Amino acid sequence: MKKPAHHKMTSRSPIYIYATEMVSAYYKCLDLKDKSVLSICGSGDQVINAYFFGAKKVFAFDINIRAEFILDLKLKALKILDYEEFLDFFGSGYGNAKFSFSNYQKIRSSLLDKTKRFFDKVYKEFNYNGRRLVDSDYFRKRDMLSASIFQVNAYLKNEKEYLKCRNIMADKKIEFVVSDINEINKKINKTFDIINISNVLNYLTANVADGDLVRILSLTIKSVSKKLKVNGLIFWYSYFEVMYKNNGKGVPPASRKDIIKEIEKNLAFKIISKKIKGMKQGFFDRINILMRVR
Asked: Cβ(75)–Cβ(48) under 8 Å?
């Protein structure tokens, strides 16, 4: 049996500037009001949008230690920069972030020490040129995506929503743990109403033999489900199937309907798939929601 692997995802992977899934669309499908949420951190957008849609407390995890840095940077930028400055810094789309050093300096003093050390180092490495930094291997390139960041992120829809989010986030503290998904049960001593594992399951099965797919995925979900409160739910993200085929890859096991049905048989969950507006115009993505039934 081959061991599960986090294919190309490590503790020092390139950083996502914005989420690459329709975060606002799937949070609208769920009732987050006053709920506790455990979420993959990624670009930080999953965390910020969860609060925006009414979550009472959000706890972030990620195998990538740099995910905390971008979350911290975004939260402080949200607090300090005006709407236009924020969009100029992080970009009004997936390929035009500037990361201007002048705006970074406005944020810098409020950052966590570890965030400050990281960004001070990388800015220096690129002679304080934000565009060169963004174009470097420190960041993931996602300018091929056709979805608008204003659709992906409700807090960026317009200046009014941005300022609303600033008020919501004013008293929120970062709770973040560096963790592989299979270590969550050991590293986090809390339970949650909702757990967002994004598309992490896809990375688990990169090097898993076909005969072990259902077992590995079921074991992971079962382990994470120990962090659920009664009547809680876990969900993960699936892109439209054509996207996987266009990339020259088959549909990942965690997004295949036959595998999902087998997982459902193995666990005390009912699995519901909901279609949402996709990351590519004219297509639908979906979230797979696992609800405890016994």
From this structure: yes
Residue 236 φ/ψ, nearest 5 degrees: -135, 165
Q: How far is residue 80's CA from residue 166's CA, in Å, rounded to a whole number?
A: 9
The tokens describing 234, both together, are: 């876990």
Confidence of residue 293 (pLDDT cuts 50, 70, 90): low
> How buried is residue 17: exposed, middle or buried, by Cβ count under 10 Å (0-12/13-18/19+)?
buried
Q: Give tens-digit pLDDT for 177-215.
A: 999 999 999 999 999 999 999 999 988 888 888 889 999
List phi, psi (to 5°) of 100: -60, 135
- Nearest to 72, CA basis, from 32, 103, 35, 118: 118
Region for 91 from its dihedrals, namely left if φ exceeds 0, alpha if ψ lies in -120 to 50, beta otherwise? left
Percent of the chain scored above 90 by pLDDT?
A: 77
**What pLDDT does 1 receive?**
32
pLDDT at 286: 95
Residue whose tokens read 């809390």: 190
In total, the chain counts a number of residues equal to 294
Reduce the DSSP state of residue 191 to 3 states and report it.
coil
Retrieve residue 120's tokens.
């001070």
Tell me, what's the pLDDT at 87? 98
Model pTM?
0.93
Name the average pLDDT for the chain: 91
Q: How far apart are CA 162 and CA 87, in angstroms?
A: 11
Helix axes 113-125, 66-80, angle to 10 degrees: 100
- Lookup: tokens for 235: 């969900």
Q: Rounded CA gap, 18 and 90, in Å?
A: 8
Question: Which residues are within 8 A (CB) of 150 and not within 5 positions of it... i.e. 6 or more apart?
Answer: 156, 157, 158
For CA atoms 82, 114, 45, 99, the dihedral sign is positive
Q: What is d(CA 105, CA 99) in angstroms, rounded to the nearest whole number?
A: 10
